[in-house]
Amino acid sequence: MLAPKAASLGGGEVQSQKPDLNAISPAMMVGRQSFPTDAVGDWKPPYMYEEYSGAGSDEGCGPIAAFWERGADSHALASLDATTIPHELRYRVDLILPKNRNHRDIAGVVDACHTFEFQGHSVRVERESVDGVPAWATAFKLELMSPGETQSWVMGQYRGIDIKVSATNAAGRPDPMPAVAKLFTDQVAKLEEQPY
Predict the structure, then answer these.
(1) 56 in the Ramachandran plot: left (φ > 0), alpha (ψ -120 to 50) or beta?
(2) Which positions ≥6 away from 98 have C-beta within 8 Å?
């Protein structure tokens, strides 16, 4: 199981003394200053995002493809394109309040799911060790084998909120994972600031 209250704000393990959060709002998210300073593309500030309710399953690769089941008003995100070409390199932060906070550990999903099919593409999954990512979170890379697109992800749960930070890199640019790791730790710190 994920440890909802375990966090590292840039080093060792730290236990939050605050309880789990029971709601999500855009104010809980990192701002533009946490994203790469050299990014010049489209900036979408934090907003509530209503979409399908997630896979609702801990089986197989479902949590990577569609996350876990969630209700209304339970998903906020922000994103930034690194260049003026849409989706060439896009950074994104998602906060999700799952219906079941004791869902399967994302590390276990990644370790068991080496390849899966998604929207007609074969996707390869590879776990990574990344400086700055706490032990309770999981860093991994997805490769869409046909178009050659890669995605760098860091996922974990803090104060009952699932955090997913990702970068979609379709242009073979330098590895965005260090920036993804920084965004993740900044987002953890932002959740730690939230009142009870």
Answers:
(1) left
(2) 54, 67, 68, 69, 70, 74, 162
Could you give the number of structural domains in the chain? Answer: 1
SS3 breakdown of the chain: % helix, strand, coil, rounded to 5? 20, 35, 45
pTM of the entire structure?
0.86
Q: What's the pLDDT tens digit per position in 118-166?
A: 778 888 999 999 999 999 999 999 988 766 788 999 999 999 999 999 9
120: domain CATH number is 3.40.1000
Using CA atoms, how far apart are residues 66 and 44, in angstroms rounded to an integer?
22
pLDDT above 70 covers what percent of the chain? 83
| Percent of the residues in the chain that have a pLDDT greater than 90, as a whole number | 48
Residue 1 lies in a domain: no
Q: How far apart are CA 26 and CA 2, in angstroms?
A: 24
